[in-house]
Write a structure and sequence with these properties.
Radius of gyration: 29 Å
Structural class: alpha+beta
Largest sheet: 5 strands, antiparallel
Strand content: 5-15%
Number of strands: 5
Order of helices and strands: HEEEEHHEH
Length: about 220
């Protein structure tokens, strides 16, 4: 019962983490305009994401443009795209593995095999979280480095956007959920009580039972 509860808890965390990860991957708010120095009052706010860039006017209008060519992007953005996509695919594979090995399903009959499949799903979730964490931390490091770099003009400096915080929350949920799934163990069928059987009673040569059997 406790193992099934752990599986449900871990699967719930991983599902929410997967949804947050895919949301962070699609949002254009990885980088946002930094309002510093003479850039405090501006007519528009720039959002930069993995797939598009958006300009939000002070009137509330927003215009977004997809990145024209993947080959024209810098290497950091290309690597971030690849890692986030791989991480999302691994989350889906992990979900299928956990569902197949869950105790509430009948896809696999053997309890020990089901527990191992759930453990494999937890490991997949942990690896996907690491794949997602790398571009998040790398992008945040670049944003902070450019922000404190005096050679970068104030109009080109960016701040950490909401997508990065959502991505960090997703990786935390995936790591915790995957770790919980790795703790899953097969349901034990032993009751905890040992049973001792008495030896069979043997007859004596004259056909009667030994009197010691009745003592």
């Amino acid at each position: 019962m406790a193992s099934a509860a752990l599986e449900i808890l871990g699967l719930t965390l991983c599902v929410f983490g997967t949804l947050l990860e895919m949301t962070a991957c699609g949002l254009p708010t990885w980088k946002v305009t930094a309002f510093i120095e003479a850039n405090i009052v501006v007519a528009q706010t720039i959002w930069d994401g993995l797939w598009m860039s958006c300009a939000v006017q002070s009137t509330g209008q927003m215009q977004c443009k997809m990145h024209d060519s993947m080959l024209a992007l810098n290497h950091d953005l290309q690597a971030a795209r690849a890692l986030t996509v791989i991480s999302s695919v691994m989350c889906v594979i992990g979900l299928m593995a956990v569902i197949a090995g869950a105790q509430c399903t009948n896809c696999i009959k053997t309890d020990s095999v089901k527990a191992r499949v759930v453990n494999v799903g937890g490991v997949i979730y942990i690896i996907s979280a690491i794949f997602m964490l790398v571009p998040l931390c790398w992008m945040a490091n670049n944003i902070i480095s450019d922000f404190y770099n005096p050679q970068v003009p104030g109009s080109q400096k960016r701040e950490i956007g909401a997508a990065l915080y959502i991505g960090w929350a997703a990786t935390a949920m995936l790591l915790i959920g995957g770790s919980v799934l790795c703790c899953s163990c097969p349901a034990s069928g032993n009751s905890g009580y040992s049973v001792t059987y008495a030896p069979n009673k043997r007859a004596t040569p004259n056909g009667d039972y030994d009197k010691r059997n009745y003592v």
